[in-house]
Amino acid sequence: MLDTMFFYMFALLAVAGAILTITMRSAVHCAISLIASLAGVAGLYLLQKAEFLFAVQLVLYIGGIMVLFLFVIMLVNLDSAAKERQFHRRWAGGAVAAVLAGASALWLLSKGAPSFGSPVAQAAPSPDGNVEQLADLLFRQYLVPFELASLLLLVAIVGSVLMAKKRTS
Amino acid sequence: MPPELTQLLPASVPLSWYLVLSAILFSLGIAGFLFRRNIITVFMSIELMLNAVNLTFVAFSYHLKQVDGHIFSFFVMVVAAAEAAVGLAIILTVFKNRATLEIDEVSSMKL
Amino acid sequence: MPTSFIPTAADLLRLSPDIVLTAGGALMMVIEPLTGAARKARMAAIAVLLIAAAMALSVMAYSDPGTSFSGMLVVDGFSTFFRILVYGCGLLTVLMSVDYFKRERGSESGEYYALIVFSLVGQSLMASANELVLLFIGLEISSIAGYIMAGYLRDDKRNNESALKYFLLGSFATAFMLYGVAWIYGLTGSTNLDTVRRAILGGAMEQSGQMLMIATALMFVGFAFKISAAPFHVWAPDVYQGAPAPVAAFLSAGAKAAAFAMLVRVAASAFFPLSAKWEMLLWATALATMIVGNFAALRQSNIKRMLAYSSVAHAGYILVAVTAHSEVGIAAVMFYLASYVLMTIGVFAVVTLVASKGERFVEIDDFSGLVQRQPMLAIALTIFLFSLIGIPLTGGFFAKFYVFKAALDSNLTWLTILGLLNSAAAAFYYLRVLVVMYMKPAAEGAGPVDPAGIGIKAAIVASAVGTLYLGVYPSAVLDFAGKAAQLVK
User: Fold this and answer.
1) Which among C6, C13, C69, C128 is the top mutation candidate for probing chain A, defined by the most A β-carbons within 10 Å of its own β-carbon?
2) What residues does C68 pair with on adjacent strands?
3) For chain C, how many structural domains are there in total?
4) Residues of chain B contacting residue A121, judged by C-beta atoms under 8 Å apart
5) Is C1 part of a structural domain of the chain?
6) What tens digit of pLDDT does each residue of A89-127 get?
7) Closest of C146, C136, A38 to residue B87, by C-alpha
8) CA C172 distance to own-chain centroid
9) What is the residue extent of each domain of chain A?
10) What number does CATH give the domain A1-81?
11) Which ipTM was obtained for this model?
């Protein structure tokens, strides 16, 4: 019962944040709304006993990525943009596409819903906590992707510095 | 309680609710990508889509009583961070060269 | 199944090309500040050595095929073929870039070569991944390096736009693909390709067939972006036109080959039980891609944009072989990609030379009288154009032949006929370049083509020799491809 109330609360936060992100005029407002949406999703992770992801979402996604977004928005100084047109002239096409996508997704989900079985009341209790289980998998089975993710981050660092560094000429 | 309300307040949240929610978030992300003009907001819509994906992974993972979905989610977050860094660097460079961030202005190469 | 922390020697051997390239690339990043501004070509030399070592190690790893790291990585004929192919593409791109940077002074840096090396790691992973996680990481490594390279000359507005479009649309595509993977995980309980196939065969189809089709459709949308299939091809002309010519070659040849390897492996391995259901959709996509690519290319006057649309059309031909969903089809895909990579690199190398500093001369008319200005270059370009058209004695001919043969073997008669018609129509825009080269006199405004450095000469000669080799003696490569097409054991 309490679970459901929390679900509604976080889901509302996530969806409201998402709607505001794609409709607000100022880029800073969009960023703040996205932060709210991400916080809602983080709450949903916590509800599903994904404690590690909850923490990573808050620290990495909100505390890292969105702060980076805000820095760039400040650097780019979009005051003038706030006064200009902010939606495509041909927005009807995009709206139709998105509504169709959403409606078809919902319809298909309703058709396929019975195949997902009964709702999970309680996850089977295991001796390890969530982080221990994740660590076990990450360092044994998923070792190679984990190491290569560090290569990915190296490429991102090299690339972003290359792109954005000060021109010396 | 009227029967409709008991339907809306089950003892625990079924999987399909999470999937519907992530489908809604994904569609909102697509909508934002397709019809916003400001490049940074377009990129924020992509982040919304990736969040919907993560939510799907976690929801299925909880349903299947496995932790593998969390691992994939974790990797998606890592990639999202890397893409954010690179993408924002590219956006900064575009802005430095053109002083505008409207998607229509940046499209000089036509069919 | 949990394994021990320490990988076995066999595991390490199978991953060794990637390990060498990663370590070498990191070493390049460390050495880079120590090389002076005028000596950046040394970084290119290091890159060449690394890639050659990786090619040698891939061949060595093939002596012990199998899966490693708890089923994540698979080394078999298919992955070795594509590893060698993308490494070769990377090597030729490095050679091409050295010459390119001689003209664009002041913007060469070791990071460019390091990015190529890292991108090759990603592409090699895409070809040899047996698990969707590793596939995704490899795809992202390759793509992110590609976004940066496409926008490498920061002050050039065309590069900026190219990088931005590639980045936005590439990320959009990745999000679709990931959503599909999330659903596959939910419906089958795993992201390992073999486990997914067993789950589909075991009964997931009956339980949730519709959602499974939706999930594969979502993944296909993501893959279709990466291979520039219609209607998800719109990024390709702008990105290839705006990026520096060597980068356009790298993306158009190597990244596309890796993306096809990814598509074929996932389709043949995990979604093999579903292949009959997807034939209609693949049929339509292949046809649309060929038509869009060819008919748009006819209207172009900028050679890079024309080559971009032509690469879209070639992706259509390869999709015809994918539609055949047979072993012959997979072998045809592999052969086509081998010849496609060689002719694409060759053509873009010639374009790099003719385009000159700042890529000023990129209209088709700028090629007029090339046979008088630079006869050897004109001959090389003729070989590549003949191969692109599909004239006998070049690799392109046999490539198309095997693709359509595979299609006919799978009873795709209409698609074959339409494909051949498309191929004939495509000859027009390639012939236009040939006519301009040979028949038109050199325009007064066209400057002399700069002398070619040894690197780019080697790249052009290697591509031309490779194209002719595949045209005269295709059986060696084709037999290997045929044996390697046994993906599903």
Assistant:
1) C69
2) C73
3) 1
4) 11-12
5) no
6) 556 666 676 777 677 667 666 665 555 544 443 445 566
7) C146
8) 20
9) 1-81, 127-169
10) 1.20.120.1200
11) 0.92
